[in-house]
């Protein structure tokens, strides 16, 4: 095991706690927290939002997908970043001016419907759980990769640590902590990448896609985890150890779905439907994620919410340049992951694989692992806090005097389901599950927010119908994909990547039903619109 | 930026549960004071300007990024085209798409703020 690993992880945790404690001096209660946050500049605020947003899926998953499938999956990072542009164009400033703190709150402010509020709560809980799941998966995977321990223990440990942290307020969603996590994550990918590129130069720039397919850069030993067929001819059994010399071709393993030849290099692996579905889900899903909206309230006004979103877009975009490079260099230095299918580990393994087991390789390996830890901690804490907050206010309904104890119960409730699920679905790509969470958000809250902000004619009945039909279709598709049986290929595409039909469906139903119930447009819609769109300086 | 607005009384906004119980009356009342047909028309104008701006820029992104998958399918040769030794799709998606998105966002922020300044100036113009 890497000797720098434990100290590195301890430093991350200690720094997180120290910065959190420093921040706590300014924020003792919830309202203190809000007031303190209002004095935070857009750049700090943006770093905090980015820190919370860049999750295990971004830190580990994107590179793994690139390693495995090539150029087609670059739509994931592009979409994750572009989601903030959609948020900026259609939602950021009016949402801040609405004064809504959570998505159910927005429903209440705009449409005054308790039923809609409860439905929105259900969707927030579902999306939150679905988004927490891959974070825990990533944690389990990291634990298993680095210590050789079992996946389940890793997922369980991080689940318990994060739950305890949030429940006891050890890591509140404090701006400075999250901002620190962003810079840590960026550094943890950028610094090793500099050394990796230098190493690649000094190795004589080995080709990423040699004409004969992927080859081993150094002598490698691979342990097969499942019975499989190599290159369609050789049978191997689970537990078998295979040895390869430098320059040997990497065999295709029948149990692992990956691209080996030139197809990795050029687009066209995914169908047009799947690609556009992914684009819609990621571009429109970001605005519906529960932990994203909460942070917007920390801006002082609508105009600064806009500026903050722009900085977030730039910061997130800067970060996403890096995972692609890890995936590409992984083709050269860690091709054995294509045989084991453990591609999400490429970021963790690449520094040691490329730079050797010396001090430099190990230190950089510890650095990326520390970054991965920051990714799990910040995103899952942020998510858990916002999901627990919704459970606290909308499900437990403790009234005005809700105690801290109730909040802890809410946290526990919010954490149990995703942790349990993470133990059972270990074999899905981290980024794929995140993609599913985005499609549900895009087909439920995106239409609700966009129509609610820009269209006076939206009624509560229309919003409810749209959430049930469009959002419900997306939820059904996700459940079928994650838990259901293997589907026929033709249907699997529509169900596995549903956004391309569920998002338009949701919009259509919302508009259609609202037109039918146009008499029930809230009477104060004019006042609400004034509030959402007029600059704060005109309020009096 | 315009001159700083005069300080207004601080509104205390509590967490999620509050918005429902208040029933939106005290918050909305202040806004309702200005609810004349003229005021309504002005707000509609502002909304229309902002929405048109957002849709126009969304169209720019749809044209710039959204057509790429179609382009790659329609003209597979583009996928093999190399710039500086990198295949064009990798360069477009992995590198250039991010500054493009930030550029569109920056343009939006600038123009949206201008729309709001125009609106404020219109409301604040001296009575005749």
UniProtKB/TrEMBL annotation, chain A:
Membrane topology classification: Multi-pass membrane protein
Listed transmembrane segments: 6-24, 44-67, 73-95, 115-133, 153-170, 182-200, 273-297, 309-329, 370-395, 407-426, 432-455, 462-487, 499-517
Alphabetized UniProt keyword annotations: Cell membrane, Membrane, Symport, Transmembrane, Transmembrane helix, Transport
Main location: membrane
Keyword hit for Transmembrane: yes
Keyword Membrane found: yes
Pfam families: SSF
Domain of life: Bacteria
Subcellular location: Cell membrane
Sequence similarity: Belongs to the sodium:solute symporter (SSF) (TC 2.A.21) family.
Protein name: Cation acetate symporter
Automatic annotation (TrEMBL), chain B:
Keywords: Membrane, Transmembrane, Transmembrane helix
Transmembrane portions of the chain: 53-78, 90-109
UniProt protein name: Integral membrane protein
Species in which this protein is naturally found: Actinoplanes couchii
């Amino acid at each position: 095991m890497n000797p720098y690993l434990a100290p590195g992880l301890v430093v991350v945790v200690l720094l997180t706690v120290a910065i959190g404690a420093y921040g706590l001096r300014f924020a003792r209660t919830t309202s203190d927290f809000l007031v303190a946050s209002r004095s935070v500049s857009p750049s700090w605020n943006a770093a905090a939002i980015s820190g919370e947003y860049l999750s295990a899926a971004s830190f580990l998953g994107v590179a793994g997908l690139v390693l495995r499938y090539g150029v087609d999956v670059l739509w994931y990072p592009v979409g994750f970043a572009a989601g903030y542009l959609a948020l900026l164009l259609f939602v950021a400033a009016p949402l801040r001016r609405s004064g809504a703190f959570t998505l159910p709150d927005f429903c209440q402010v705009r449409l005054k419907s308790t039923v809609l509020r409860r439905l929105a709560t259900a969707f927030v809980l579902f999306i939150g759980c679905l988004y927490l799941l891959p974070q825990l998966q990533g944690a389990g995977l990291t634990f298993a990769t680095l210590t050789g321990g079992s996946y389940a223990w890793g997922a369980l440990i991080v689940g318990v640590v994060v739950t305890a942290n949030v429940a006891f307020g050890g890591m509140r969603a404090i701006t400075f902590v999250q901002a620190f996590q962003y810079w840590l994550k960026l550094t943890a990918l950028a610094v090793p990448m500099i050394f990796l590129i230098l190493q690649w130069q000094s190795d004589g720039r080995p080709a990423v896609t040699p004409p004969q397919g992927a080859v081993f850069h150094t002598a490698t030993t691979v342990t097969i985890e499942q019975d499989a067929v190599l290159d369609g001819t050789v049978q191997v059994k689970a537990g078998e150890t295979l040895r390869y010399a430098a320059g040997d071709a990497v065999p295709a393993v029948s149990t692992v779905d990956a691209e080996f030849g030139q197809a990795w290099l050029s687009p066209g692996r995914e169908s047009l439907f799947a690609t556009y579905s992914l684009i819609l889900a990621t571009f429109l899903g970001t605005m519906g994620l529960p932990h994203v909206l909460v942070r917007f309230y920390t801006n002082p006004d609508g105009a600064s919410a806009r500026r903050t979103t722009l900085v977030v877009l730039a910061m997130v975009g800067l970060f996403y340049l890096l995972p692609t490079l890890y995936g590409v260099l992984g083709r050269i230095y860690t091709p054995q992951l294509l045989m084991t299918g453990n591609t999400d580990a490429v970021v963790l393994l690449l520094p040691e694989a490329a730079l050797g087991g010396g001090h430099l390789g190990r230190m950089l390996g510890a650095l990326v692992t520390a970054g991965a830890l920051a990714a799990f901690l910040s995103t899952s804490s942020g998510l858990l806090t916002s999901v627990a907050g919704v459970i606290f206010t909308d499900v437990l309904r403790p009234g005005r005097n809700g105690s801290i104890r109730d909040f802890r119960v809410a946290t526990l409730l919010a954490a149990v389901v995703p942790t349990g699920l993470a133990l059972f679905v270990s074999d899905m790509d981290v980024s794929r599950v995140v993609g599913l969470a985005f499609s549900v958000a895009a087909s439920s809250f995106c239409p609700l927010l966009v129509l609610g902000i820009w269209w006076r004619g939206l009624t509560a009945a229309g919003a409810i119908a749209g959430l049930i039909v469009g959002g419900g279709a997306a939820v059904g598709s996700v459940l079928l994909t994650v838990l259901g049986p293997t589907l026929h290929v033709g249907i699997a595409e529509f169900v596995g990547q549903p956004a391309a039909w569920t998002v338009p469906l949701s919009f259509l139903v919302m508009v259609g039903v609202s037109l039918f119930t146009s008499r029930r447009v809230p009477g104060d819609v004019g006042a609400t619109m004034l509030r959402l769109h007029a600059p704060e300086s005109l309020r009096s | 930026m315009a001159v700083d607005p005069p300080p207004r009384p601080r509104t205390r906004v509590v967490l999620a549960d509050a918005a429902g119980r208040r029933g939106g009356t005290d918050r909305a009342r202040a806004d309702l004071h200005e609810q004349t047909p003229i005021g309504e028309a002005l707000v509609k104008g502002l909304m229309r300007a902002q929405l048109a701006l957002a849709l126009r820029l969304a169209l720019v992104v749809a044209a710039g990024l959204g057509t790429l998958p179609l382009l790659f399918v329609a003209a597979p040769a583009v996928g093999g085209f190399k710039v500086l030794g990198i295949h064009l799709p990798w360069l477009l998606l992995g590198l250039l798409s991010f500054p493009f998105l930030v550029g569109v966002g920056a343009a939006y922020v600038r123009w949206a703020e201008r729309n709001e300044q125009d609106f404020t100036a219109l409301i604040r113009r001296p009575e005749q």
